[in-house]
Amino acid sequence: MSEGSLWSITEFFEMTEFYQGFLLSVLCSLKSGKTKCIFSVSFILVFALLFIIVSVSYFTPAIYCRYGKYCVDSFSCKEYAENSDTLKECLDSEECLGNYELKPYIQKYNRIRSITAPNFLPDTADIQASDDLIRVDEVSKVFPTKRYKNEGTEQEALTAVQMAIKMKNVQKFDKAVKLFQHALALQPLHPDILNHYGEFLEEKENDIIKADHLYVRALTVSPEHSRALVNRKRTLPVVDELDEQELERIDRKRIELIQLNHNNPSLKRVKKEIYFQHIYHTVAIEGNTMSLAETRMVVETRMSVPGKSVMEHNEILGLESALRYINKTLVNKEIVSVYDILAIHKRVLGHVDPIEAGSFRQNQVFVGEHIPPLASDVAYLMEEFVEWLQSDGMLRLHPVKQAALAHYKLVYIHPFVDGNGRTARLLMNLILMRNGYPPVIIRKQDRSMYYNAIQLANEGDVRPFIRFIAHCTECTLNVYLHAQEYGAKCLMALEQPKKQDYNDIIPL
């Protein structure tokens, strides 16, 4: 029993002796007359009532502390015990909630209120072995990356642009495109070249999205570029409308998928096949050399594949463990905390590196041309990150935008030594699954496009990355919707290689 809230046994007996002595004195006074007797009986009743109230107020907390989890002293923040407001803040803190969940989780699915969000992961029993198969001199300060190294002089690049404009005027568009690309190769970040090429794409190629992106890059290098400002003001509303049309089309497909009969054996088989595809592509992006068939065998049988490293086996097992954890625990949780992100990472990396799994990095890391924040800032940035996830501005965005931005920001912070990409993609899919979307597959064939979109976001324009995630979301929805119609060919589409340029931007 704790001090200040419960009586000790000695105090209890002392109080009991006091009441016994008082009762005897009252009984003795009864002999003195009726008036005094009535007065004494009244006192007996009053003190008996007080005794009951005091006993209940002191002994009831003891019962709760003994048989429940709501004793104030059981929490780690005893200094707030005398202040109800600060005590509530303490009980709501992550330190207390780590041991006691006082708030029920509310399933977050308010987009389609009349329909229950389906489970897009196959049941555990279904996963078993089977036979089924600015100024130019300031450019380097803006983008300190090797990919934008100048290969020629400014005069050479501008001459190529003038020749490209002449080719455009005489209707020789193929030559104009090659000259513009040559000029960009000579001076990749010259604002005039970016603006002229954007005007050509907008006017002759009708590629508004790529043109708008080039205007943004020109303005990033030279914020006061007058022609780029005018062009950007014209293209921005058009691009926003195209983006909204894409998201509306994705929403219609999501509703169509939710309304399907998810108890259909054919759809259950599709979920199972896509589940293996998801694990295979997610680890393959990070360099895992397991084939789809080998990945499936590891997941189904837990047997080793000859010639493959232990680490590759553990990457697959860790990703499946994290995916199961998200589906069973976090999908129906209203708020994602730092602890939840650490729990995801602990499962992703737990089989590969148990020491680093579930903990923030303690040293500086370098990711290609991106230098993440200092290790000393990671904990603070992650606290800000989870607050941002629950902010009003974030929650008002379309779920696909929420998922893409959460993915990008986590990768930018790069809070872990390893496993950042897998954790970010799992967090992205958690947000999508909470809103009725299936886990999105980013194909390993699209790795260069995926990394290029992240690089473009690092350079100031995050919209290409959002469009890339929207494109992957729609492709995944198409696989679910049409797999029953086209059979194995639709699933094989995830394996078909696609030729792509390093600087590709996903069009709508």
From TrEMBL:
Residues 336-471 form the Fido domain. GO terms for cellular component: membrane. It catalyses: 3-O-(5'-adenylyl)-L-threonyl-[protein] + H2O = L-threonyl-[protein] + AMP + H(+); L-tyrosyl-[protein] + ATP = O-(5'-adenylyl)-L-tyrosyl-[protein] + diphosphate; L-threonyl-[protein] + ATP = 3-O-(5'-adenylyl)-L-threonyl-[protein] + diphosphate. ATP binds at residues 367-370, 418-425, 450-451, 458. It is found in: Membrane. Keywords: ATP-binding, Membrane, Nucleotide-binding, Nucleotidyltransferase, Repeat, TPR repeat, Transferase, Transmembrane, Transmembrane helix. It is an enzyme of class 2 (transferase). It holds the Pfam family Fic. The chain crosses the membrane at residues 37-59. Its EC number is 2.7.7.108. TPR repeats lie at residues 157-190. Belongs to the fic family. This is Protein adenylyltransferase Fic. It comes from Larinioides sclopetarius. The lineage of its organism: Eukaryota, Metazoa, Ecdysozoa, Arthropoda, Chelicerata.
